[in-house]
Amino acid sequence: MNTKSNLLLDQQLQELQFIQCSLLPSEHFTFLLPPEDVAIWASLLEDRSSKRTSDSDSIVNNDPPFLPSQARFQVRLSGARIWFEAELPSLKSTPSTPPSPRSPRAAVRISVKGENISRDVQERWQALVRAGMQEVETSEYPVYELLSLHLLPKLHEELSSCSDPQNAEPEATDTPRHYHALLTSHHLVSPTKRRSMQQWSSELGITGFAKVGYPGIIYAEGPQHGVEEFVANVKAMQWLALRVRFLEPVERLRSPGNPGDRWIELQKIGEMLEEMRKQGREALITDLGIGCSSKQ
Q1: Of 145, 123, 125, which is closest to residue 133 (Cα–Cα)?
Q2: What is the tens place of the pLDDT at every residue in 30-81?
Q3: Distance of CA 256 to CAs 4, 172, 184, 205, 223, Å?
Q4: Which residue intervals of 23-166 are DSSP H helices?
Q5: Residue 239 banded pLDDT, cuts 50, 70, 90
Q6: Among residues 278, 263, 284, 92, which one has the least CA distance to residue 194?
Q7: Which of 18, 99, 112, 230 has the greatest number of C-beta atoms within 10 Å?
Q8: DSSP string computed for 171-208
């Protein structure tokens, strides 16, 4: 395989990892390929993930025996009639179309699919795709940014607005539902990200913590709308392998305005486990295989 093909493959694997790791629990990624091709892509993704410690370990310097088929996949949201299908540039070059990792938008295709939707609805969504592609055309990872920053948030918004009130869970009109979320990333070092999360937590009424360093771990708790907006804000920033572990309702353990309600930064996994232990939620961390070897 030539160097350009290696670079393009490595970039596509990284973009696919970003997409998969950024999905919320209700969002689903599926390859649209024959089973044998799905197995090849899954193996390459797993191999790249295990060798992610440095650039020198990337696929660029670990030549696979052959090029995989062109990547085609769909991303769906549970309960939505609209979903998106994407096709990444072909890795197999011809004399007239050499693979180029520096012009990712040129051969990327995003289409809108749906069940029992009108032509007007499909055309409106396709127009959103075109507008979004113009905004991410200079990005190194256009499909990831288009899905995570434009299409999926819009789909969540429309699904929420179209929900049938008769089927909604009953809840007190004067008490918002309490939610919590856990996100993990390869690392959390950036002062800008840390300041932003501190600011958002204050603006949205969020408590929790950010465990900085390697790995990066973020736990947020508060009113549903605040936690959902906080998670969306975090996802909108650039990360290495950000993953939303859960975003779900949770029982409120403390009264609003409790002096212990605050946003803090932690340096060590042991400190993070102790913070969760105070709330009786340590298992939320250890069940994910994080800090299992720490002393109790």
Answers
A1: 145
A2: 999 999 999 999 999 888 777 654 444 444 455 555 678 899 999 999 989 8
A3: 56, 16, 26, 10, 10
A4: 35-50, 119-135, 142-145, 152-161
A5: confident
A6: 263
A7: 230
A8: --TTSPPEEEEEEEES-B--HHHHHHHHHHHHHHT-EE
